[in-house]
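User: Modeling request: complex.
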Amino acid sequence: MTHWRRRWQARRGDGRAIPDRLWARVVADLPCLQALDGNEQARLRDLCAAFLARKEFSGAHGLVVDDRMALLVAAQACLPLRHRGLSALAWYDDFVGIVLHPDEVVAPRRTRDEAGVVHEYDEALAGEAMQGGPIVLAWPRVLGSAPGATGIGHNLVIHEFAHAIDLHGKPLGQPADGCPLLPAGFLGLSAAAARQHWHTVLTEAHATHRQRVALHERFGAPPPWLDAYGAESLAEFFAVACEAYCVDRERLAEAHADLVALLDAFFARPTAPGDTR
Ligand SMILES: [Zn+2]
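Assistant: Request completed. Predicted assembly structure:
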């Protein structure tokens, strides 16, 4: 395992600590950053500086993590937080380590089915988020879409960090369930009402998505734009919805307007003049 050290002094929350040339290169690499206006990019750059000051990157199997690689991860991890600002980095405070692998990771799995039979198998993973960290990412996938992916709303880094947001504040051992800790006063509701509202909207959108996936798989209907993997569970649905939201919010809104309104509130997206959604 090799460890990455910043060669520049990343002052807390000051994006100017990131060299201009490096920032420009990372923006050029990531289409989802190019759509941001100047203010949003400056806020994101500040977030990245603070993020990089808090996190430790390592490369597995001899992969050497350089500044560009670390910043590519930071920029995508911080993209959903850009409207909430530095305080939202607390969502990522439950872990410090980020491990980049040269390729997909083969993880041994062990499950017990309903009949009590234990199954052991290896699973190839592009990434993984676990309670307490680290976040594991396959480096080749940090820049690109999944092989064979039909939609363009994919982003592996946002997916894994969405799981981290989901896990934040959950008691040890409680799995991700698509229902993250909500900010105080969320949508002007009490904490209990906000949780209930979140669960209702997410569950309904998930049911709609499952139905669309089933219609595609069983009856040859066109595939839904949103990643079919989201049908697996509420936790995966939340993660693929966050990916799609950050990569192409308008397209997601066509498929799941209520869900987008929920994510707008969660990520504190300001309402644009004339914005009716
Ligand atoms: Zn996932």
